[in-house]
C-alpha cells in the first residue's frame, strides 16, 4: 500500500487504559475508578512498624494505609484492625496482595462490585501494579449515583 | 510487515515524533475510548481508505483492542 514506516502497538488500547494513560472519547465523560480514587491516601513501607504508621495515618484523618515498595507498587493494605497491631512490623500485619482495580473501570461497576463484596476501600493501580489511589466505596457510590442522576435528568430534558 | 511495539514509552515516543495513530476497531468502540489524536480506520476499510486518509511520508502506528 506504499506505507513503509508502520508500527503495531501489539498490546493495544486495553494496555493503554490499564496504565491509566489519557484517552479521548465519550467514556472520558463518565467517572472512572482512577478519577475517583483518593490519590493522597497514606502509604508506608513493609519495613516500618505499625506504631509509626498508625500515628501518621490517624493524624491525617485516615483509616487505612497502602503498603508500597520503592517503585510505588502495591504490596499490601492496612485497614483499621491492622492499624491497632502496635509493636509489630507492617510486613507481618498487612493484608498481602489486596484486590486491586484498574483506573479505567467505570465507577458504576466499581460501586456495584464493592457493595456486593462489602469492600470499604480498595487500591486502584496501573497494570504495572503502581498505586493510583485508594477508592472508597462511599465515594464510588456517590459518584455513581450522581452520574446516573445526571443521565436521567438529561434524558428527561430530551424533546 | 509492521514493526511490533510493546513498550508504552515507545508508543509515546512515536506519537511525539508525529506518527499517525490509527485505531482499527469499529466506530462504536472508537467513539467510547481512543488514544489521543487517533483516527478511526476499521480493518475492513484499511485497503480502500488508507491512501486517502494517511500520509505515507509519516510513520503510522496502528492498534487494536489488545493482543488477543
Q: What is the tally of beta strands of chain A?
A: 7
Coarse shape of chain B: globular
Compute the separation of the termini of chain B in Å. 18 Å
Q: What is the tally of helical segments of chain A?
A: 6
Structural class of chain B: alpha/beta
Question: In CATH terms, what is the fold-level topology of chain A?
Answer: CBS-domain
CATH architect. name of chain A: Roll
Largest sheet of chain A: 4 strands, mixed
Q: What is the helix/strand order of chain A?
A: EHHEHEEHEHEEH
Low-confidence stretches of chain B: none
Estimate the helix proportion of chain B, in percent. Answer: 25-40%
Question: Helix content range of the residues of chain A, please?
Answer: 25-40%
Series of secondary-structure elements of chain B, N-terminal to C-terminal:
EHEHEHE
In short:
Chain A has 159 residues and is an alpha+beta fold. In chain A, 35% of the residues lie in helices and 18% in strands.
What does this structure look like?
- The complex is a heterodimer of chains A (159) and B (68).
- Chain A has 159 residues and is α+β, with helices and mostly antiparallel strands.
- Chain A contains six helices and seven strands, in the order βααβαββαβαββα.
- The longest helix of chain A is centred in the C-terminal third of the chain and has 21 residues, at 137-157.
- Chain A is flat.
- With 68 residues, chain B is α/β, with parallel strands linked by helices.
- Chain B has three helices and four strands; from the N terminus they run βαβαβαβ.
- The chains are: A alpha+beta (159), B alpha/beta (68).
- The A-B interface holds A 1-17, 19, 21-28, 104 and B 2-6, 8, 11, 14, 19, 23, 25, 30-38, 46-47, 50-51, 54, 56, 58-67.
- Strand 1 of chain A pairs parallel with strand 4 of chain B.
SSE blueprint and pairings:
The complex is a heterodimer of chains A (159) and B (68).
Chain A lengths: L5 E4 L2 H7 L14 H4 L6 E2 L5 H10 L5 E4 L5 E5 L11 H4 L1 E2 L10 H10 L4 E5 L5 E6 H21 L2
Parallel strand pairs in A: 2-3
Antiparallel strand pairs in A: 3-4, 4-5, 6-7
Chain B lengths: L2 E3 L2 H9 L3 E4 L3 H6 L6 E2 L5 H8 L6 E4 L5
Parallel strand pairs in B: 2-3, 2-4
Amino acid at each position: 500500500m506504499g506505507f513503509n514506516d508502520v508500527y503495531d502497538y501489539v498490546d493495544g488500547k486495553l494496555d493503554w487504559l490499564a496504565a491509566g494513560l489519557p484517552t479521548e472519547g465519550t467514556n472520558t465523560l463518565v467517572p472512572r475508578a482512577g478519577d475517583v480514587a483518593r490519590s493522597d491516601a497514606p502509604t508506608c513501607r513493609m519495613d516500618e512498624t505499625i506504631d509509626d504508621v498508625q500515628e501518621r495515618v490517624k493524624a491525617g484523618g485516615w483509616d487505612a494505609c497502602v503498603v508500597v515498595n520503592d517503585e510505588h507498587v502495591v504490596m499490601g493494605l492496612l485497614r483499621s484492625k491492622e492499624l491497632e497491631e502496635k509493636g509489630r512490623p507492617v510486613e507481618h500485619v498487612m493484608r498481602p496482595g489486596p484486590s486491586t482495580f484498574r483506573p479505567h473501570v467505570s465507577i458504576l461497576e466499581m460501586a456495584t462490585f464493592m457493595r456486593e463484596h462489602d469492600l470499604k476501600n480498595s487500591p486502584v493501580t496501573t497494570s504495572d501494579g503502581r498505586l493510583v489511589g485508594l477508592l472508597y466505596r462511599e465515594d464510588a457510590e456517590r459518584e455513581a449515583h450522581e452520574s446516573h442522576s445526571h443521565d436521567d435528568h438529561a434524558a428527561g430534558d430530551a424533546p | 510487515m509492521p514493526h511490533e511495539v510493546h513498550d508504552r514509552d515507545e508508543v509515546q515516543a512515536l506519537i511525539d515524533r508525529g506518527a499517525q495513530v490509527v485505531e482499527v476497531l469499529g466506530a462504536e468502540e472508537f467513539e467510547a475510548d481512543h488514544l489521543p489524536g487517533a483516527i478511526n480506520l476499521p480493518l475492513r476499510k484499511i485497503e480502500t481508505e488508507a491512501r486517502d486518509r494517511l500520509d505515507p511520508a509519516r510513520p503510522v502506528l496502528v492498534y487494536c483492542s489488545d493482543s488477543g
